[in-house]
């Protein structure tokens, strides 16, 4: 498990370019509608900061496909899809797989997810899943590829630039976050 970034969700700390994930650039979408901020086709994010979308899972069923569809809509809005190359297609598929794995883990181990927050700047897409669970996600070690189950956090670890868990003192639950590089 990564603990290399002690910053709260949405804040990757100071960056040389002056960009910070703390900014909620654009309009955050809430609810299952997915309507919200989107960059023009072909652009990952505007120069003013990251694009952010948020999906609440209150009283929703089928949250894994809902999260994937919501994320896919954001990837279209941010210009990741339709992909112009195999590398860009693979990057978008990696984001969708990480969203599926994190939401599934929240369903299996943490009483279900509360919300999904995704943000995108020109370099990184960040996925955050908030849940009410008290457990600490970690890849199973040793990883046994031939056995069923237990591969989710191993997949997240392999596909992401970084990932971690943030807890807010005095608040139950946690936020599991993962960051993936933008396609070239």
Automatic annotation (TrEMBL):
Transcription among the record's keywords? Answer: no
Q: Which SUPFAM superfamilies match?
A: ATPase domain of HSP90 chaperone/DNA topoisomerase II/histidine kinase (SSF55874)
* Record carries keyword Ribosomal protein: no
Record field: compositional bias (Low complexity):
15-32
Domain Histidine kinase/HSP90-like ATPase, by residue range, is: 70-177
Q: Print the keywords alphabetically.
A: ATP-binding, Kinase, Nucleotide-binding, Serine/threonine-protein kinase, Transferase
**Pro residues composition-biased segments:** 1-11
Q: Which residues form a coiled coil?
A: none
Chain residue ranges for the region called Disordered: 1-56
Q: Sorted alphabetically, which CDD domains does this protein's record hold?
A: HATPase_RsbW-like
Q: Which GO terms describe its molecular function?
A: ATP binding
Give one Pfam family.
Answer: HATPase_c_2
PANTHER family on file: ANTI-SIGMA-F FACTOR RSBW, ANTI-SIGMA-F FACTOR RSBW-RELATED
Name the chain's protein.
ATP-binding protein
| Organism, as annotated | Streptomyces tibetensis
């Amino acid at each position: 498990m990564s603990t290399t970034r002690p910053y709260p969700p949405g804040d990757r700390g100071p960056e040389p370019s002056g960009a910070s994930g703390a900014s909620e650039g654009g309009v955050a979408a809430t609810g299952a509608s997915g309507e919200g901020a989107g960059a023009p086709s072909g652009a990952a994010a505007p120069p003013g900061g990251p694009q952010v979308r948020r999906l609440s899972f209150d009283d929703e069923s089928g949250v894994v496909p809902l999260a994937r569809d919501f994320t896919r809509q954001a990837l279209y809005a941010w210009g990741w899809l339709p992909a112009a190359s195999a590398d860009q297609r693979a990057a978008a598929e990696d984001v969708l797989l990480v969203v599926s794995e994190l939401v599934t883990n929240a369903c299996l181990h943490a009483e279900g997810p509360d919300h999904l927050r995704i943000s995108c700047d020109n370099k990184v897409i960040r996925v955050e899943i908030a849940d009410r669970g008290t457990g600490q996600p970690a890849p199973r070690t040793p990883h046994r590829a031939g056995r069923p189950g237990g591969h989710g956090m191993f997949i997240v670890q392999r596909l992401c630039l970084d990932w971690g868990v943030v807890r807010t003192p005095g608040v139950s639950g946690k936020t599991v976050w993962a960051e993936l590089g933008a396609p070239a």
